[in-house]
Design brief:
Length: about 575
């Protein structure tokens, strides 16, 4: 559980520092109003940040966050990484060098020398006396904000709500620092005008109460702290290099990838680090922190030199949560001690899409599955021109596809003139069953619309048969090349297909299983039920047959919150 708590400590300390930076940026944005407004907000904020308990929390967060960054630097075995991860690490180590100056000239000046720092004094320093330092302080806030946003993106991007919130978060991420920069420049212009009056400068210095000797002491302290920090980082890098030499002398481990490529790595190197160092693309949405499981890899021993090292409690918790089988490990956590063969399960191009679609690749979930088929279309198309056949089919697919997507369904595939759709992948079996029934009602209404539109061109009306069943199915990326996509397999899918075929036997437009009826919670008793034997199942199955699926409109309206129908469909 150590890694779990380390991740929590990194997130908690980062959020505390992010709050501190955010208030500073908002304070700077008030420069668009006036310097007095900036000082007024500073007077309010300082009551909070000046509290001894809050100061202790802030200092602890700073030390914890920086300490964990040093730990991550020590544990890292390769410098190859995605650009966003490299940017976050680089920005993270730039921040302390600039931050030391700000802390020393504000908190140390106030606590040690009793100075009363105001925005007028700060802006005077930044825009008149030391513009270079002013540029550094502005850079500090922007860099800290960017570093935090990249880190939060790593945390939030694996959440299913993130795609909906991302546009608003992106706007906020750009707007806040932009307003701060504009406020900083606006306030700087005002200060430059005021600084033309020596009496104003004298009044500002008098209010602050720092002597020349005290300012010199602060400058010397900043230099010492920066040199100490630089020595710490250089020392850590040198020790890392020595450790690498020692590990290589102790022996190397051979990783064999599925494509036959072999690489030798020192003990203690994770499979993800080894893949990156060798230039082999490897999925890792969370940046190798063990949060997303997209780096999952199948691992087997190449020889009899020993078994796989036991998973840590943190890795084991993720493996059990994802219900991953034996032999599957997280590449970011697994550090082989012997020669192994590794096969990444997810491709980098698939990993992010899998999370965003709400279904992990290779997972089992209870969903509702729908099959729909266009009746008699083969005979109908025999005496029509190919263009007419394609045009009519595309109109049919568009109408049915809109009905499915409007009900929050996922179109799995088009099979000839048939359609397979999945419901409840992003919610639960109750919502999935209701959404499937809503889609069936919509589809029935849309087929009536098509018949009205083509009344003078079709010798017979278009008819459809729909089968819906709910149960456990295996969801995953299946196929090859461009024909690879998210789909479902299992008894649930086969049963739904059989129910669609039974619509011919019962003269029905829609047949649903008892599992769908139980999940949806709607009163379907007005429609006849039948006990049927489904090929491939050992036990009989109760079904409900609907002559017209649009008859469900009134029943589905009871579940309006989950899947409301448009007024024209419910008519």
């Amino acid at each position: 559980m150590k890694e779990y708590w380390i991740n929590r400590a990194r997130l908690a300390s980062g959020l505390a520092l992010f709050a501190y930076v955010s208030l500073h940026l908002i304070n700077l944005a008030l420069g668009l109003v006036s310097i007095e407004a900036m000082d007024a907000m500073l007077a309010v904020v300082i009551v909070f940040w000046g509290n001894p308990v809050v100061q202790a929390v802030l200092l602890t967060s700073l030390l914890v966050h920086f300490g964990l960054a040093l730990r991550a630097l020590w544990r890292r075995r390769t410098w190859r990484m995605p650009p966003r991860e490299l940017a976050q690490i680089s920005l993270g180590f730039i921040i302390p060098f600039i931050l030391l100056s700000h802390i020393t000239k504000t908190r140390v000046a106030a606590d040690v020398h009793g100075a009363h720092i105001t925005y007028a004094f700060e802006l005077l320093q930044f825009w008149v006396r030391d513009p270079f330092n002013g540029a550094l302080q502005l850079l500090l806030l922007v860099v800290a904000w960017t570093h935090a946003c990249i880190g939060l993106n790593f945390v939030m991007r694996i959440q299913r709500w993130y795609p909906r919130a991302q546009p608003y978060l992106l706007i906020t991420a750009f707007t806040v620092p932009l307003l701060a920069v504009l406020g900083f420049f606006r306030a700087g212009a005002v200060v430059r005008e005021l600084a033309k009056d020596p009496a104003w400068i004298a009044a500002v210095d008098r209010d602050v109460g720092l002597s020349a000797d005290q300012k010199a002491h602060l400058a010397h302290l900043i230099l010492e702290l920066r040199l100490g920090l630089l020595a710490l980082l250089v020392g850590l890098l040198m020790v890392r290099y020595v450790r690498l030499l020692v590990l290589r002398r102790r022996g190397m481990v051979t990783l064999t990838f599925a494509n036959g490529k072999c690489i030798a790595i020192p003990h203690g190197t994770s499979v993800l680090e080894a893949s990156r160092d060798a230039g082999i693309a490897h999925a890792s949405i969370c940046g190798g922190r063990g949060r997303c499981s997209t780096c999952r890899t199948h691992v087997t021993c190449e020889d009899n030199s020993g078994g796989l090292p036991a998973a840590s409690n943190f890795e084991l918790g993720v493996l059990q949560q994802m219900k991953l089988p034996p032999g599957v490990r997280l590449a970011c956590q697994f550090r082989p001690l012997h020669n192994v063969k590794v096969t990444p399960i997810l491709q980098p191009s698939q990993a992010h899409r899998a999370i965003m679609q709400g279904a992990e690749l290779g997972t089992e979930r209870e969903i509702a599955v729908m099959f729909c088929d266009l009746r008699g279309f083969t005979a109908l198309s025999e005496h029509r021109l190919p263009y007419d056949v394609v045009f009519l089919l595309n109109r049919y697919f568009a109408a049915m596809g809109e009905a499915i997507t409007d009900s929050d369904g996922h179109i799995d595939k088009f099979i000839g003139d048939g359609i397979m759709a999945l419901f409840g992948m992003k919610s639960n079996p109750v919502s999935g069953s209701r959404q499937a029934l809503a889609a069936a009602a919509r589809m029935s209404a849309r087929i009536d619309g098509l018949n009205a539109a083509f009344a003078h061109e079709l010798p017979e009306k278009l008819k459809i048969g729909i089968g819906i069943h709910s149960g456990m199915a295996v969801l995953g990326e299946m196929g090859w090349g461009t024909a690879k996509g998210l789909t479902a397999i299992g008894d649930c899918v086969n049963t739904a297909s059989r129910l669609e075929s039974m619509t011919k036997e019962y003269g029905a437009e829609l047949i649903v299983s008892e599992d769908v009826e139980r999940n949806c919670g709607l009163d379907l008793s007005p429609w006849p039920s039948h006990e049927v034997t489904v090929r491939g199942r050992t036990t009989p199955l109760l079904i409900r047959a609907f002559p017209r699926a649009r008859e469900l409109s009134n029943a589905v309206s009871l579940a309006k919150a989950a899947c409301a129908l448009p007024q024209e469909d419910a008519a």
